[in-house]
């Protein structure tokens, strides 16, 4: 940061306004006396020395009349610091592209314009990096305004750079098939950039979206992989992977960043297994649920790595507390509604259901709800997730619900769900595919899981209320496990690649597990899908419900099952099915007939259980505070962190770099 500031100060003390407007320059209306007609001149600009030509001309395309004008301008100053601002991303592509406009190629005393296709390619690949630091795309890189088509005799300013990159890539792998992943830690800004760059690279199968914001306003950015990103495909199951719920447990965050890059690259390289996963599954990845806590933990580790710090404790001992909570000092894995207690208290009712239990109003009244928790709850309610994994650190084991003991006085008591066998299979799928987790000889971190093959019931390990996994199971169709990745919550960078190798197969196997059991569509007599129909299995007191189009997914082990579909206002239909061991997923459809509506027995003597759709009844999160707006009526945002570098020069700053200004 200091280097960037010094560089800016040394380059200029003021910015001059071009004597020829950009519009005039672009249209060829800049007039000069005959004796001073523009001629080609040698390229002497320090930040444009590596362009694929040796001569330029002034006035340039945006109207700077001389080299001195350019060097005193905001545009050239931006090129001089862009590498530092974007953490090296899209470098030198952006700089070379900018030089092609600010110091354009000159041949035979004629100015040549760069190709529009080159600009569009760079913008598509790099605009995410600008968005990550809340910077607008520079006006002088407007592809339509300052670049031309090939039919107008343009040139490619990136041609030599591409040739060098192709040679370098060819030397990496003899076969030409490779996936490049940088196994280092990433700041929040770098994480956002990588996810957006990955989505841009694989735009046909991927997109990024935000599920909300943290206490300090950081995006909770997710990336999705699907053959039809942005939409739910009929009968295609959806899964989610969440990392960094505790800000100081960082390995899961990094693994999910690597996984996103791996899925994108391997899909493009023709990896059949990856293509099958993505073409048949909708995958949602949230690498960091707690970006605020991560920053605290990362700064703590940085301090302890300082050689002048005499109290160094190393990575392994860092952050058993530092950065665990969010910026409100709330433990996010204790902040969800305690639906498990409701399940235990009311399971004696014959018709009581253990699925889609509503959030009680007391939760909103008596608890401080973190914005990160609220965002994930809405996320869970918005997508028909089937399975989920939350990646943690501190042990080496897979934990599955229930996490809250069925006896409040028992801290370690086996507390199974009605889907105990399904959860065990789901947990074992990850543990067995992990390089060491299920090995009884593997050194553990204090708890004893040697005789359990690396899996445990959560409450039997230790009991706590308000956990995310229990909430998933009791409030939605989603089966979530907790993946404890190892003893060291913040391992050294040298361990990141070995940990990726230990967990890669486990992550892929976990995603493939979703294609087990049965799936189908519940329709009415006219062929219309029925939303919210229940799918129940005899002997299992936990139902799932159909999605918007009437499709459903029910995890089941092989065997004979009696499956029933029911919906309010329709007759019930039951089917006896046989799920062979050699069939991963079976198709079971239902057609329900309309009948007179009868009152449901499910809610007799059980108050407040018919309000599932009432979420955030006091509207405490949806309310928005007044925003400052500019003269054009658009919302003005607070100045971003990089603005200080420009404003400290004490002159008119480049407001064209501000978004929504």
Automatic annotation (TrEMBL):
Active-site feature positions: 484
Keyword Protein biosynthesis belongs to the record: no
Domain of life: Eukaryota
Disulfide bonds: 119-143
Cofactor(s) in the UniProt record: Zn(2+)
Signal peptide: 1-16
Domain FZ: from-to ranges: 35-157
A GO molecular function held by the record: metallocarboxypeptidase activity
A Gene Ontology biological process term: peptide metabolic process
Domain Peptidase M14: 184-514
GO cellular component terms listed in the entry, alphabetical order: extracellular space
Keyword annotations of the record: Carboxypeptidase, Disulfide bond, Glycoprotein, Hydrolase, Metal-binding, Metalloprotease, Protease, Signal, Zinc
Keyword field contains Signal: yes
Family: Belongs to the peptidase M14 family.
Protein name: Carboxypeptidase Z-like isoform X1
Organism expressing this protein natively: Carassius auratus
């Amino acid at each position: 940061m200091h280097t960037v500031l010094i560089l800016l100060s040394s380059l200029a003390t003021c910015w001059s306004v071009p004597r020829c407007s950009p519009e005039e320059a672009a249209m060829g209306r800049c007039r000069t006396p005959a004796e001073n007609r523009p001629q080609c001149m040698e390229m002497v600009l320090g930040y444009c020395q590596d362009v694929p030509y040796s001569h330029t001309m002034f006035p340039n395309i945006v109207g700077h009349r001389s080299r001195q004008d350019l060097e005193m301008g905001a545009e050239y100053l931006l090129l001089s610091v862009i590498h530092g601002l974007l953490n090296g991303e899209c470098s030198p592509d952006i700089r070379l592209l900018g030089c092609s406009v600010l110091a354009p190629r000159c041949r035979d005393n004629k100015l040549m314009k760069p190709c529009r296709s080159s600009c569009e390619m760079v913008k598509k690949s790099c605009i995410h990096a600008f968005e990550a630091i809340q910077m607008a795309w520079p006006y002088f890189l407007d592809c339509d305004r300052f670049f031309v088509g090939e039919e107008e005799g343009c040139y490619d300013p990136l041609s030599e750079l591409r040739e060098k990159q192709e040679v370098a890539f060819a030397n990496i792998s003899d076969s030409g098939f490779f996936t490049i992943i940088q196994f280092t830690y990433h700041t929040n800004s770098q994480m956002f950039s990588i996810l957006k760059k990955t989505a841009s690279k694989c735009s046909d199968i991927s997109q990024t979206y935000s599920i909300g914001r943290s206490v300090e306003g950081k995006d909770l950015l997710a990336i999705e992989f699907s053959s039809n990103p942005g939409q739910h495909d009929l009968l295609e199951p959806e899964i989610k992977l969440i990392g960094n719920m505790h800000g100081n447990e960082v390995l899961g965050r990094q693994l999910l960043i690597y996984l996103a890059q791996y899925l994108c690259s391997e899909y493009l390289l023709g990896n059949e297994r990856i293509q099958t996963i993505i073409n048949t599954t909708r995958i949602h990845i949230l690498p960091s649920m707690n970006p605020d806590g991560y920053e605290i933990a990362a700064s703590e580790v940085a301090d302890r790595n300082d050689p002048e710090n005499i109290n160094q404790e190393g990575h392994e001992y860092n952050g058993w507390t530092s950065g665990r909570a969010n910026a409100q000092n709330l433990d996010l894995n204790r902040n969800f509604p305690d639906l498990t207690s409701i399940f235990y208290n009311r399971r004696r009712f014959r018709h009581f259901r253990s699925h889609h239990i509503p959030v009680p109003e007391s939760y909103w009244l008596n608890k401080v709800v973190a914005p990160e928790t609220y965002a994930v709850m809405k996320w869970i309610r918005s997508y028909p997730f089937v399975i989920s994994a939350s990646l943690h650190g501190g042990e080496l084991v897979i934990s599955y619900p229930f996490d809250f003991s069925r006896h409040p006085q028992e801290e370690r008591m086996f507390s199974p769900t009605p889907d105990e066998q399904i959860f065990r299979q789901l947990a074992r799928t990850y543990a067995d595919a992990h390089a060491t987790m299920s090995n009884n000889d593997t050194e553990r971190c204090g708890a004893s899981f040697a005789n359990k093959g690396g899996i445990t019931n959560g409450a039997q390990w230790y009991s706590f209320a308000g956990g995310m996994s229990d909430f998933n199971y009791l409030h939605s169709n989603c089966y979530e496990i907790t993946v404890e990745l190892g003893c060291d919550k913040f391992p050294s960078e040298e361990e990141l690649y070995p940990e990726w190798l230990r967990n890669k197969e486990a992550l892929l196997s976990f995603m493939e597990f979703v294609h087990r059991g049965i799936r189908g569509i519940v329709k009415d007599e006219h062929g219309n899908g029925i939303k919210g129909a229940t799918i129940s299995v005899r002997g299992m007191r936990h139902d799932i419900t159909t999605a918007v189009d009437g499709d459903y997914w029910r995890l089941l082990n092989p065997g004979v099952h009696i499956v029933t579909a029911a919906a309010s206002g329709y007759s019930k239909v039951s089917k006896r099915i046989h799920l062979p061991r050699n069939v991963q997923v079976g198709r079971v459809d239902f057609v329900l007939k309309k009948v007179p509506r009868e009152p449901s027995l499910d809610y007799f003597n059980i108050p407040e259980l018919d309000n599932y759709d009432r979420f955030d009844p006091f509207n405490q999160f949806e309310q928005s505070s007044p925003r400052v707006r500019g003269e054009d009526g658009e919302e003005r945002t607070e100045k971003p962190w990089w603005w200080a570098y420009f404003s400290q020069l004490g002159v008119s700053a480049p407001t064209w770099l501000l978004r929504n200004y």
